[in-house]
Write a structure and sequence with these properties.
alpha/beta, six-stranded mixed beta sheet, 3 helices
Length: 128
């Protein structure tokens, strides 16, 4: 299976999905014109990854900002990962990174933590 690597832009995050290392990363800003269109290839990749995932899958979310439509896609992203985790195919852990003074991103991470059935580690970082 091929890695999925997308360069970030001012409106889209860097995507680094490495199937051999079981590492999925989103970094930067997520304010694409069409969130569903942007995230669809990511969802398709996860579906394919689910056929033979690593025993442990680590998800690093390092977003400085995302819009409302991206928040729904991020939730859908986590829901797809839940199916892998609950199916016992892989143990998924989410690391939600937020800047120490960014209460909005902290709260967003806590909201996801309350909604999804995956372990979510809240990781405070210095300004990105």
């Amino acid at each position: 299976m091929e890695a999925l690597i997308l360069e970030g832009s001012p409106k889209t995050p860097v995507v680094n999905f490495d199937p051999t290392g079981g590492l999925l990363e989103l970094k930067g800003r997520s304010i694409p014109e069409n969130s569903i269109e942007f995230y669809k290839p990511l969802f398709d990749w996860i579906d394919n990854y689910g056929h033979s995932p690593q025993a442990n899958t680590k998800v690093n979310i390092v977003l400085e900002y995302f819009n409302t439509s991206s928040s729904k896609c991020i939730l859908d992203f986590f829901k797809k990962l839940e199916t892998l985790n609950n199916g016992g195919k892989t143990s998924v852990t989410v690391n939600w990174h937020y800047e120490e003074d960014d209460e909005d991103m902290l709260e967003a991470g806590e909201d996801y933590q309350a909604i999804i059935d995956l372990p979510v580690n809240m990781i405070e970082v210095e300004e990105i």
